[in-house]
Amino acid sequence: MGILKDNGVVYEPINEVDLSPNSDQLYLHSDVKAPRMAGFLAKVFVWFLEMKIIGKILLYFLKKNNRIQKLVSYAVLEESPLYVPLHPYEESEEQEEEIECLNRGLSASEQVQHAVACLQSSDSTILEDSNFSFRRWTILDYSRAYTSRQITPLMVAERLISAIMQSSGPEMDMSFFISYDAHDILRQATESTLRYQRGEAISVLDGVPIAVKDEIDCMPYPTTGGSKWLHKVRACKEDACCVKRLRACGAILVGKTNMHELGAGTSGINPHYGTSRNPYDPKRISGGSSSGSAAVVCAGLCPVALGVDGGGSVRMPAALCGVIGLKPSFGRIPHTGVLPLNWTVGMVGILAGTVEDSLIVYAAISGPAESDKPKIPRLNLPKLNLSNMSNIRMAKSNEWFNDCSDDIRACCSRALANLHKLYGWETIEVTLPDIEVMRLAHYVTIGSECTTSIAHHLEKTGRSESGWDVRVALSIYASFNSRDYLNAQRIRNRQMKFHEKIFSMADVIVSPMVGVTAYEIKDDVQDTGELDYVNGAALVRYSIAGNFLGLPAVTVPVGYDRLGLPIGIQFIGKPWSEAKLIQIAYAMEALCKAEYKKPHVFYDILAPS
Q: What is each CA distance from 60 to 54, 65, 544, in whole angstroms?
């Protein structure tokens, strides 16, 4: 890392840093000095924090004790700032037989058609899955059922509405959705049913229910960002670009899913709209901030949902809920119509029951906006065939990989051993320097961007109407100054160069997705939310490179802990390498899906009558 000088660290020049497994680089564990707070204690802390003089003193010590000043603010380093992680690109070197490179200018439904052509034959998939104890319904299952007249989109919509109402009731209180409109769902389903009756289905997504995180504009709903006030000052006037593309494919947009308020937390606990509970154990969190999107996919209400990933906010809840979480490269999916809470670290992502479904929706919503066409490479789609898998080299930084619970470490290690045994894939040991530094620099960046984007609203009514936990986060975010932010961007540049070196040795970086499995929801959180930075740091530990450096990443469920809670592994790819990443995820899923378990809360929406 470097040496201490005055108040900050002096970082070594990049070319002097050893990235080998025998490196003398010190691995810093998260050293979060903040007690868990909720209820009355959280309110008292906020009252002090929002006092002018006392608040400044508290914020100074919070930043100092949690090493932001030492590792970021007063750090000495050579690199210049890098503000936006938009990567240059070259023509793909992937073999033609493994991918399909799409022409520019295709419609969303045409891209979906190409994605379906990349899937394995349906017969082999059905044969493969027939002996599994638990199997999720896929997009192709919905499409086949509609085409064969076994069921109609209208019948599915009626079942779905009933399930949403039941899960939202006081007995279950799963809090999956912030808003849904039964009449609008039935309207879309009726239109889809008529298209199938005429033999005019738009795509395999026609009639498939898809949920949308309440950070993404989707008519006719307000976009709250999980707050009680943001939709009052920012009206939703049209669909976000990604939602328009799904709607153009015939998908049924079923409502806005719950989320951690303003995306400012990892638990998904929301004092305004309730806490989206984990379908594997409703006493536990589903993770954040895309909590509702992960939970509705896990519970079988939708095969796919959209989320936004600013600091693992798609991948963390996906791992905690045992589903696929895909975050593409920065810029791959247009951000138009998404709340501007984190300009340079947030990206639309996909939560899906299967890798195949993540590929189909990825194809539907990917592609540049008109203004971005010269900047974004053409879309590559992988041909998902296990007999056509190339050799993969996976970089593993041991101390970082092992900085998690015993169950997670053992489960993810077994997954790597199985990949080597079946496919011959190689694990290359490396050292990824300054992981904790990158986490803190990302925290400064996402916090600065969040408060800047909503500052003029906070000054009026936003702060007083925000949850108590979010008010703490907003106070910390507002304390960051230009030196904090600029040094964070210099660290971004430094980390970009480290990762480029790692990717010269390996195809992907592999890690667990989270450091702990889903923890219990305490009784004192419902009115105030929860301040639990220790668990928060453990949940976000493996997420940051994907956001801060704009890299594509995917998490795949690989097993369960002793309590039966899901565990996910993560693969981080080179810029624009989503095709290879999806292939790797598909191979990993194939090794694990025979052992997948049915959640405690699950709705069999497509079951025969």
A: 10, 9, 24
